[in-house]
Amino acid sequence: MSEPALSSSTLPQLLGISGSLRRASNCTAVLHALQPLLRERAQLEVTTLQEVPLYNADLEGDALPAGVRRLKQAIAAADALIVCSPEYNYGIPGVLKNAIDWASRPGFASPLKGKPVLIITAGPGLFGGARAQAQIRDALAATLARPLARPHSAIPAVDKKIVDGRIDDETTRQLLSDALDDLFAEVALVGGAPR
Fold this sequence. Notes:
Layout: E1 13-18, H1 26-33, H2 35-38, E2 43-47, H3 66-77, E3 80-85, H4 94-103, E4 116-122, H5 130-142, E5 146-147, E6 153-155, H6 158-161, E7 162-163, E8 166-167, H7 170-190
Parallel strand pairs: 1-2, 1-3, 3-4, 4-5, 4-6
Antiparallel strand pairs: 7-8
């Protein structure tokens, strides 16, 4: 007996956050290329961080910048997050760390608290940004988010694996499909949405 189809309102809502500001960002392309792998199991909204200013505690509360307010609302509305980031100088890009700092407020009660997060890194080099993964994971764990405990999802030579907006490499496709399966299992575990 097949499972009944879920309506779009009952599908898990995923928010993809790109850690790159580049117009032709590989990380943003990876997030968009995930759509076929979702196989109608979830809805994915992709966002970038262009409108998020540098963190300034003086602007919390009523003075919260509009771009920060939109980011926090999108995080709160999502059942889980997918962060796809490059690696800059062996670490987390400043724009992504800045967004995590904004989203982590108020402390211990932010929209990140308890949120499952799949971390993907991608880059043109041999390691696919893998060295940034621990920093991204640590920053998210400090906010009480739930970064998935799983093997690294790193895409080396990403510029050759995402072609015309689609994943053009079977190993990468399987890596990301397995990562999404783990994310859906975590969402089900925390009770955010049906499997």
